[in-house]
Amino acid sequence: MALSDFGILDHVTSSVVGFVLGTFTSWLLNSLWTFSAQLHGRLLLRFVAVTLVGLGLNVLIMACVEAMGVDYRLGLFTVLTLVPIFNFCCHRWWTYRGSFVP
Predict the structure, then answer these.
(1) How many CB atoms lie within 10 A of CB 10?
(2) Residue 101, in any domain of the structure
(3) Angle, nearest 10°, between helix axes 72-90 and 41-68?
(4) How many domains does the chain have?
(5) The domain containing residue 78 runs over which residues?
(6) Which pTM value belongs to this model?
């Protein structure tokens, strides 16, 4: 969080900037490397939609874990296990459907 550590941005804004840059980088690398797809706006919109649903799952899982009074590490383990699998499957079967050669 260098942006907030140096007083350039507050923590929340810095986190949003990191999320946006991370999402863009992930889209670029997944498009070019993982799925060998051409870069275009439709893919970016679908990629962002899947990413936001994944973020929602993350928040939902962590909120449920907190509400149940369970150790947060169980939530982290669940999020780190399920959300990437969910995201990859959605990208494989929806975001990049017909856009790559398996």
Answers:
(1) 11
(2) no
(3) 160
(4) 1
(5) 2-95
(6) 0.82
Distance, in Å, from the CA atom of 52 to the CA atom of 32, rounded to the nearest integer, reads 21
- How far apart are alpha carbons 91 and 83 in whole angstroms? 12
Domain assignment present for 100: no
Q: For 69-94, what is each residue's pLDDT tens digit? A: 999 889 889 999 999 999 999 999 99
**Residue 66 located in a structural domain:** yes
Residue type, 65: V
CA distances from 10 to 1, 3, 4, 22, 23 (A): 10, 8, 5, 18, 20
What's the CA gap between 23 and 2, in Å, rounded? 18
**Each residue of 30-60: pLDDT tens digit?**
999 999 898 989 999 999 999 999 999 999 9
Q: Would residue 74 count as lying in a domain?
A: yes
Structure tokens at 72: 């947060």
Q: How far is the C-alpha of 52 from the C-alpha of 19, rounded, in Å? A: 10
